[in-house]
Amino acid sequence: MYRFLLTPRWWGINLFVALAIPFCVFMGTWQLGRFEDRVQSHEEAEKRPDPGTRAVRPLDELLPVSTETSGRPAEATGTYADQFLVPGRKLDDRSGFYVLTLLRTDEGKALPVVRGWLPGTPDGAEVPAAPAGEITVTGDLQASENTGSDGVNVRGGLPEGQLGMISAASLVNLVPYDVYDAWVTLTEPEPGSAAMEPVPAAAAPGSGLDLKAFQNLGYTGEWFVFAGFVLFMWFRLMRREAEAARDVRLGLAADAD
């Protein structure tokens, strides 16, 4: 009755099932592992002191930016140079833009510094001038933004002097000097720039239970459902063909062959 399972067609079906189910289980287990890693990193971050409360360290000692150094106070000395406005940024659900000025350090590289946030649009806005001369800034360290960061503008077409994404990659073609692959946000308003509000540091990417973490959990369920579906369809096809073979044997249906 089940001799059809040894036919070439069913050998192909059986081979597909034998490969598909372990693959689905492997992918589901991998996605579950990624979710568990995010949960563990979140728990570790919860146990660590608030980065903003830790001692100020020189910038170079905190680079490259990691989940451990993100948000920690960094200190750098230099002179302000080129300035850009970063539109489409919200603060406490209010629309506005960042004022970002590059700090040329003694090493020759420039550190992007978000000096503050202003409401409205950058066009025609009155932006406080950056302090002149050599200055030491202290701000919370942040990793370069990417296309998935909140508020990033990847459409392009911004007016001259505006920037859609705070990253060394987006600045390298706009200034004639090297830029650190990081940036800082000032924690206190600059003297004489009361109109600008400090921008709070964001949590390090991958250190919290964000939407991506729960996406991993959702993908875990999907892969296990796929494995169950493959097994269900194999069993259903097998039962249907077995019943057809039985009907032929009993003379209830003509032999398709």
From TrEMBL:
The keyword Membrane applies. It is a multi-pass membrane protein. CDD domains: SURF1 (cd06662). Its main location: membrane. The keyword Transmembrane applies. InterPro entries: Surf1/Shy1, Surf1/Surf4. Keywords: Cell membrane, Membrane, Transmembrane, Transmembrane helix. It comes from the Bacteria. The chain crosses the membrane at residues 12-32, 217-237. It is found in: Cell membrane; Membrane. Pfam families: SURF1. Belongs to the SURF1 family. This is SURF1-like protein.
